[in-house]
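Q: Hi! First time doing this. I have a protein sequence and I read that you can turn it into a structure. Is that right? Here it is:
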Amino acid sequence: KPVSSIRLATPYESRGPEEFDQTGDVYAPQLESIVRAQLLEIGENPDREGLVRTPLRVAKALDFLTNGYATSLDDVVNNAVFDAEGAEEMVLVKDIEFYSLCEHHLLPFIGKCHVAYIPTGKVIGLSKIARIVDMYARRLQIQENLTKQIADAVQEVTGAAGVGVVIEAQHFCMMMRGVQKQHSWTLSSMMLGSFRENHRTRHEFLQLIAKR
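A: Yes, that's right. Below is the predicted 3D structure, encoded as structure tokens:
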């Protein structure tokens, strides 16, 4: 019998009606058939009660976890850049939690991101910094690229004299498989402008994010 369906026009189209969670509903037909085939390949029965809606739920989850592809920097910032005459001191938003998927294994890496910039007469709404982090985190990523993309975006939007980004993350591809190190953290940083050129600015930033 016919079922409700959303056929994906592109991998990056924004979707997500929450009512799609009933037996027989189809959210992303091709992706769901692939998930079903994976369940068969690992020796599972996709028709048993606990798995019968798993392909649907996986499709919805991946749609949400990769919705950064459907969002542009302009959409995120939404003109929330304001004149701030005399604003020349560091602005820091730290401990921004994020969740991303490793592009090598499609396993999560999670952690905190710290973002600082030196304004040159313009400031960005503070929540927009967190939204920029989310936009890039919700794509298939490696931590090194994620760090650079966030820094470049803040620089582009604010025209700042300098931008500093530090990410601290735990990677499930190291924790659940491979070397299986559950307590290791990966730190990455990107320093632009005065954060790279002026050791005092850089030192102040690193000191501030070290404080709890």
